[in-house]
User: Fold NADP-dependent oxidoreductase domain-containing protein from Vitis vinifera.
Amino acid sequence: MALYVSSACFCGFSQKRVERIKAVASEGFATVKTEEEKVKLGGSDLKVTKLGIGAWSWGDTSYWNNFEWDDRKMKAAKGAFDASIDVGITLFDTAEVYGSRFSFGAINSETLLGRFIKERKEKNPEVEVAVATKFAALPWRFGRQSVITALKDSLCRLGLLSVDLYQLHWPGVWGNEGYIDGLGDAVEMGLVKAVGVSNYSEKRLLEAYEKLKKRGIPLASNQVNYSLLYRLPEENGVKAACDELGVTLIAYSPIAQGALTGKYTPGNPPTGPRGRIYTPEFLAKLQPLLNRIMEIGQNYDKTPTQVVLNWLICQENVVPIPGAKNAEQAKEFSGALGWRLTDDEINELRSLASETKPVIGFPVENL
Ligand SMILES: NC(=O)c1ccc[n+]([C@@H]2O[C@H](COP(=O)([O-])OP(=O)(O)OC[C@H]3O[C@@H](n4cnc5c(N)ncnc54)[C@H](OP(=O)(O)O)[C@@H]3O)[C@@H](O)[C@H]2O)c1
Assistant:
């Protein structure tokens, strides 16, 4: 109980400082300006911004948004999209299952993203957007043709002729060979610029890499859960394998679904399904790490969110894709770019984080 009260007090004090930093930063949010600010995705020719925006929450009513979707939330999501483009973040990550009826969603995230792109292009036809979406390896989907069929449906919802990155969302329960063949076919048909996987173990990553390599197609990325709070990729060989093979690690849930932003405290835990993971007890144990993140951030005039995203970018070969529900959140992400923590700070934060029990990951990682 003592820890609960004292850490909440400290957090409240620091939170005011964070709000001041946010207010100052909002006067001139960093803008990702040039092509040089982009990175190549693995061995592909696709260049993307060093940070992308996750669109899982757009239209979703199964995990996010307190099971409700309305006009206000849609306007906020559009605000997130427009603000991202305004600050120069042009990579957006979605999936056929986000917001879909299959996952009890209100409106498909791909449909929303496609709509936002169309509206933006009507104002500025030159605007560049890199779209990453994903194939759901559902147990009743077999073989390479299922990948192409699903991809064409995604393109239809997005209103696009091709996407920049097409990923297998999770490993198939019956095997992956047909799906990998389907990815290769998609490249050869000109429907995608680059292909990747997601939630793939070191072994599966290597198999996918080798199979595509035989067709002369680089495996561009592996999208996995990675944050200061979830460092499994460092422990299970996935990060090392990505580095060795030249496959970009795309980090999902990089701010631990809001827990690393400092806004959730033992007295103010998140609502909905997140509340079961980031409980008041868990958040109380997180306070020493959050306090240090805030202190380090203050030295750079950066918010905790910007510090933890910078920590990921400093791991090299990592592109984080934090989810943004509104313009403010998206703008704040841009402040994670253009500077770097010192090696001592990076190591100190990892070591402090290792004192917190890891959260439970997405079960598909263990398929
Ligand atoms: N491949 C996969 O299996 C997989 C799995 C999960 C996610 N993903 C992808 O990764 C993306 C990001 O992961 P995620 O959405 O799970 O988690 P996340 O990026 O770690 O957290 C996103 C949430 O944090 C809160 N937030 C965002 N910016 C904030 C800010 N500046 N200040 C305070 N709070 C902020 C928002 O929720 P509140 O405002 O409600 O707190 C937001 O929805 C997803 O959108 C999706 O594209 C992929």
In short: Strands lie at 38-40, 47-49, 53-54, 91-93, 130-135, 163-168, 192-198, 219-225, 248-252, 318-320. The two ends are 39 Å apart (CA to CA). The longest strand covers residues 192-198.
